[in-house]
Design a protein that fits this description.
271 residues, alpha+beta, Fructose-1,6-Bisphosphatase, Chain A, domain 1, D-Maltodextrin-Binding Protein, domain 2, 2 domains, 32% helix
Amino acid sequence: MLDQVADLVREVAQTIVLPRFRRLAADEVQQKAPGDLVTIADQESERALARGLTALLPGSLVVGEEAVAADPAVRDLIGGGGAVWIVDPVDGTNNFAAGRTPFCVMVALVRDGETAAAWILDVVDDHLTVAEAGSGTYRDGVRVKTRTDDPGAAALHGVVSHKYLPEDLGNRVRANAAGLGGYTAGKHCAGYEYPAIATDEQQFGMFWRILPWDHTPGSLIVREAGGVVRHLDGAEYRPTNRQRGLLVAANEDIWRSAHGTLFPDGAPAVE
């Protein structure tokens, strides 16, 4: 099934998403919430993926970003047992709508609340990263593993996504991040950030807003490559979790170094 889903993801990307890149009409882009866009490509991609995925696995359910936007109760299906597909039809929609890269198509298969497999396709660069629980992570068919050493905080580079952080916490995190080797606010595309950690392009990522379609596919990809994906209090990330704050790292030691630098007084309180 890994190859069948990969073929479906690539077909949808090439026939629905890519043809609209830099060709969107004004009425094909809408705002779901302030600063949060949806395009006709998101909507059509999600419908096509839902049809294809449920055909591959009869009886399965689909939790897509746009379906949840229309009916938030759909998200509850993730914890309901059985096989559930989590779909991000265009990850990095704001990039896509602005004619920028990166943007991705992402899918994860969750069985009884645990992530079983994941697929992330970088649409323009055509890089496909796939992971299966217990079987490793593969990028374009080649197995990838995270780095196993910790060069120390001053040599770590990664992402501190502070867009949704409360103002006071955001100020503290940015000040503390000066102790790292370097960081950016990210490329506004989780489908880029997670594989970049798996391949050592960067060593960590810190995120505040945690939505399952953004983080479930990448979390399995990083873990199966040898990395760590935990909430700021150290709890392991699961698809059903709604707790804000997530720190992703290439390995256990790097997780501790990044966490200790960003949060020297311990994990912040999360409502």
